[in-house]
């Protein structure tokens, strides 16, 4: 039975230069792939179910199903709310059993971001859940790949130190050249900036948008204080690619077979990433 994934494990990963994968799921097929990858690797993993999924299914039903799948896992699996801008949504997810939340105030100015993130920290305290926030601006779309000219507003180390001190957040998502979604050319991660951020703050860093980034860069980021890595676009591509491939096979309407292949392909993507971030 999974015991969830607490802040201690995230901090431990930071100290050891390891990375924990945060994988986005939109349905139970995705959740099953995440749990399977964690079990096969024998490593902790985080299932991220957020607002985007809630827009197309009954949120309560999906969360309940995800918790049942996660609770059967022999390895630690966290349940994480990704990119939420609403304290009400954060409260509902914490009530439903989420072990961590990401409050996204990156669209706000510094003071407003501090206020929103501090509110999330206050809220999560009574649930024994940890909070991730974002400082800087990570370009792209979290749910589909779009044309992105370049990185957004980078995270400044001095502001990062002020932000963490003012809010008390447990983890900080940073903008260091990373973008959401797949891009025509690989994102250029500024490792020197990551090194400065590691020295500036004493909490684990989070890297969003790892799809398409070279494994050597991800491994280097682990050594520079990044303890949580978010993946979504590569999983979407694996899911849709599997369904498209299977639909071409006669009789062309075997939905169960398509979903089985999609789960297998997503599991392979996740297992390969875990081997990079947390090798045996």
How would you describe the overall organization of this protein?
With 280 residues, this protein is an alpha/beta fold. The chain has eleven helices and eight strands. The chain has helices at residues 7-16, 28-41, 51-54, 59-71, 87-95, 110-125, 157-167, 191-200, 215-223, 233-247, 255-277, and strands at residues 20-24, 45-48, 77-84, 100-103, 130-135, 171-174, 205-207, 226-231. The chain has an eight-stranded parallel barrel, surrounded by ten helices. Helix 2 crosses helix 11 and helix 5 (87-95) runs parallel beside helix 6. The longest helix has 23 residues, at 255-277. The relative contact order is 0.15.
Tally of DSSP β-strands: 8
First-last Cα distance: 22 Å
Q: Could you tell me the strand content as a percent range? A: 5-15%
Count of helical stretches: 11
Helicity level: 40-55%
Largest pleated sheet = 8 strands, parallel, barrel
Strand order in space, largest sheet? 1-2-3-4-5-6-7-8
Global shape: globular
Q: Please trace the helix and strand order, writing H or E for each element.
A: HEHEHHEHEHEHEHEHEHH
Would you tell me the overall average pLDDT? 92
- Helix/strand structural class: alpha/beta
- Parts with pLDDT < 50 across at least 5 consecutive residues: 143-150
Rounded to the nearest angstrom, the radius of gyration is 18 Å
The oligomeric state of the chains shown is single chain
């Amino acid at each position: 039975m999974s015991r969830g994934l607490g802040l201690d494990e995230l901090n431990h990963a930071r100290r050891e230069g390891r990375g924990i994968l945060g994988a986005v799921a939109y349905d139970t097929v995705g959740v099953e792939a995440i749990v399977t990858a964690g079990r096969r690797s024998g490593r902790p993993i985080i299932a991220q179910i957020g607002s985007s999924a809630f827009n197309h299914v009954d949120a309560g039903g999906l969360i309940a199903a995800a918790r049942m799948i996660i609770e059967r896992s022999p390895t630690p699996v966290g349940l994480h709310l990704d990119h939420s801008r609403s304290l009400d949504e954060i409260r509902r997810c914490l009530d439903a059993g989420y072990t961590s939340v990401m409050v996204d105030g990156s669209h706000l100015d510094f003071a407003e971001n501090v206020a929103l993130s501090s509110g999330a920290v206050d809220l999560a305290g009574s649930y024994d859940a940890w909070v991730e926030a974002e400082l800087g601006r990570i370009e792209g779309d979290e749910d589909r790949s779009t044309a992105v000219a370049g990185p957004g507003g980078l995270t400044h180390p001095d502001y990062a130190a002020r932000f963490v001190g003012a809010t008390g957040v447990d983890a900080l998502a940073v903008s260091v050249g990373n973008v959401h979604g797949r891009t025509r050319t690989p994102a250029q991660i500024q490792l020197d900036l990551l090194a400065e951020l590691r020295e500036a703050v004493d909490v684990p860093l989070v890297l969003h948008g790892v799809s398409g980034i070279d494994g050597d860069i991800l491994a280097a980021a682990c050594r520079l204080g990044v303890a949580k890595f978010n993946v979504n676009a590569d999983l979407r591509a694996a899911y849709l690619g599997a369904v498209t491939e299977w639909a071409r096979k006669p009789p062309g309407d075997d939905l169960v077979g398509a979903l089985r292949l999609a789960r297998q392909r997503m599991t392979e993507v996740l297992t390969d990433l875990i081997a990079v971030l947390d090798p045996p």
